[in-house]
Write a structure and sequence with these properties.
mainly alpha; Calmodulin-beta-like; two-stranded antiparallel sheet; Recoverin, domain 1; 2 domains; EF-hand-dom_pair; EF_Hand_1_Ca_BS; 9 helices
Length: 181
């Protein structure tokens, strides 16, 4: 297979790097950092949102999606969300922009979970242990049993403590399938 150099394709095929805005450069770079599995997930979500079938999401489609999640943002809030997502400012959200925003949102969620993890890691050893959790609750056998069960259920490497990855798995499972009360 023969590779074609960009000079053979023509100067107009690739935009010159000095003509790209910082936001556009961030978009191009972020696409390389998103895993294939995440891209598949994002594509499915994007496809559900993209009702106009032009490959872009409009503010109206974004509003409908947010309302389907039982959220009621004001017009200004919706415009702010849309403007933040429309990185190139053309009035539409394309797939690259959608991926950039989704990845940014997920990274922010992970940073928040990291803060929660640090609060639970009472001895600051980088793990949540049974003792860390027991310091947070009142004394009682039933609470000890629940804590032991949590450690057993999510301590996948069986070292008696939860790593950050195990903690994230636990949180994601709890929030995707909340226990019935």
């Amino acid at each position: 297979m023969e590779f074609i150099l960009s000079s053979q394709i023509g100067a107009n095929f690739f935009p010159a790097m000095d003509q790209l805005t910082d936001a556009q450069i961030a978009l191009y770079l972020s696409m390389d950092l998103i895993s294939g599995q995440k891209l598949v997930e994002y594509k499915l979500i994007f496809k559900q949102l993209n009702k106009n079938e032009r490959g872009v999401i409009t503010i109206k489609e974004l509003g409908a999606m947010i309302k389907s999640l039982d959220k009621s943002p004001s017009e200004k809030e919706l415009e702010d969300i849309f403007r933040a997502s429309d990185v190139d400012g053309n009035g539409e959200i394309d797939f690259r922009e959608f991926c950039f925003v989704m990845a940014s949102f997920e990274n922010e969620e992970e940073r928040e979970m990291c803060q929660v993890f640090k609060m639970l890691d009472r001895d600051e050893d980088g793990f949540i242990t049974q003792n860390d959790l027991l310091q947070l609750v009142e004394k009682g056998d039933s609470k000890k049993k629940v804590i032991r069960q949590i450690i057993r259920d999510y301590d996948f490497d069986r070292d008696g403590r939860l790593s950050f990855a195990e903690f994230l798995t636990m949180i994601k499972k709890i929030f995707s399938h909340p226990p019935e009360l």
